[in-house]
TrEMBL record:
<dbReference type="Pfam" id="PF02874">
    <property type="entry name" value="ATP-synt_ab_N"/>
</dbReference>
<keyword id="KW-0375">Hydrogen ion transport</keyword>
<dbReference type="GO" id="GO:0046933">
    <property type="term" value="F:proton-transporting ATP synthase activity, rotational mechanism"/>
</dbReference>
<dbReference type="InterPro" id="IPR022879">
    <property type="entry name" value="V-ATPase_su_B/beta"/>
</dbReference>
<comment type="function">
    <text>Produces ATP from ADP in the presence of a proton gradient across the membrane. The V-type beta chain is a regulatory subunit.</text>
</comment>
<dbReference type="Pfam" id="PF00006">
    <property type="entry name" value="ATP-synt_ab"/>
</dbReference>
<keyword id="KW-0406">Ion transport</keyword>
<dbReference type="InterPro" id="IPR004100">
    <property type="entry name" value="ATPase_F1/V1/A1_a/bsu_N"/>
</dbReference>
<dbReference type="InterPro" id="IPR036121">
    <property type="entry name" value="ATPase_F1/V1/A1_a/bsu_N_sf"/>
</dbReference>
<comment type="similarity">
    <text>Belongs to the ATPase alpha/beta chains family.</text>
</comment>
<protein>
    <recommendedName>
        <fullName>V-type ATP synthase beta chain</fullName>
    </recommendedName>
</protein>
<dbReference type="InterPro" id="IPR055190">
    <property type="entry name" value="ATP-synt_VA_C"/>
</dbReference>
<feature type="domain" description="ATP synthase A/B type C-terminal">
    <location>
        <begin position="355"/>
        <end position="454"/>
    </location>
</feature>
<dbReference type="InterPro" id="IPR000194">
    <property type="entry name" value="ATPase_F1/V1/A1_a/bsu_nucl-bd"/>
</dbReference>
<dbReference type="GO" id="GO:0045259">
    <property type="term" value="C:proton-transporting ATP synthase complex"/>
</dbReference>
<dbReference type="Pfam" id="PF22919">
    <property type="entry name" value="ATP-synt_VA_C"/>
</dbReference>
<keyword id="KW-0813">Transport</keyword>
Amino acid sequence: MRGVEYKGVRSVDGPIIIVRRSENVFYGEIVAVRSRSGDKRTGRVIDISEEYAVVQIFGSTTGIDLDQTRVEFLDTPMELRVGEGLLGRIFNGLGKPIDGYPDIVSSKKINVNGNPINPYARVYPRDFIQTGVSSIDGMNTLIRGQKLPIFSGNGLPHNRLAAQIIRQAKILNADEQFVMVFAGMGIKYDVAQFFINTFEESGVLSRVVMFQSLADAPSIERIITPRCALTAAEYLAYEKGMHVLVVLTDMTNYCEALREISTTRGEVPGRKGYPGYLYSDLAELYERAGKIKGSKGSITQIPILTMPNDDISHPIPDLTGYITEGQIVLDREMSQKGMYPPVAGLPSLSRLMKDGIGEGMTREDHKDVSSQLFAAYSKVKSIRNLAAIIGEEELSDTDKQYLKFGERFENEFLTQNEFENRSIEQTLDIGWKMLALLPRGDLYRIKPEMIDKYLGKAAAVPAEA
């Protein structure tokens, strides 16, 4: 029976309390907890046994005593209020406004856990998104409806790159604009302020919904933050027909909060202490991207995660790579050389790229140019390793050509200004200009008719000083 308060709790352990359960309690149900002084806190049910329910409190459990605390099960899951007024607003990790304005005016609430998408209802992503960043557009293309994470490390410019993508992302040959949903989990105040300032200065703030769970907020809040953000994205995409770009940062902080809760509950740990269900929990978030039949809108996800110790085999990037359709990997050595964006050429990958490029989508030569640049840059890496052993003067003339190509490729193709917005034609033209530095016979991944059409024109362009 609802509306009944239960007095007393069995135990309190960090943010977790164990209480006597009511008859029809369900997993994820919201619970009101009132201490002896009358302070009200909110929690949710995260585990159930025959007699007891385990409740996770959003915030501190200070002041909750075993005898006088009262608990009420509210017969509702965690919900987010949605409506026309979402855009341009800033919320905390639980979906409460923190921008000084009142709640949005709407009677519609949606379960933040989302509804499962029938796989048959999904539409295969094929629409090219131009980010204006050559290392992404040319070699690791982002497709509308894709989930393409950025694998970064502490101190690398992943936030600047994400902000640049948000400013510049557009769909070619279409008038539709993107709206953005930004979710910050455990981020510092200056990072949150950087994104707000960037959105304001570029004039896109009115098309952004922000959810912020700052570093000083309870870590438990981080579990809800991406779910609130994705619920807002689903409403805008599938009910309002908008194209939504979702940026989630930092997924490492989210996983740390998950590990903290798992440890408190006494669960058997998996790799590096993370819970065994880390894969399914991440999949629950990432799989909320995509396009659905009958809906004009779409959700494209760019999760950002900082790899602990720059270790790409760490459980968080490892499992993320299994679930998502590729990754953009940032390289510390490239960043230390002053290159921006420091996108590592070889470890980066977009698995949906092949279906969104080519004639009628980007340009007929895109696939061949990308493939040849990958092959040539891979050879550059091998030659550099050889030169470190035998010395550069011992290399063949062809190998020296490749070293020159590698240096120009990094400085002119991969490197660009933070506010430089390159069209896909500009990106591919620069790619041809780089390939003109190599022997024609080594361009074995490009069709001869493409070489005849584009290479001469690129070779005629004077080299930059």
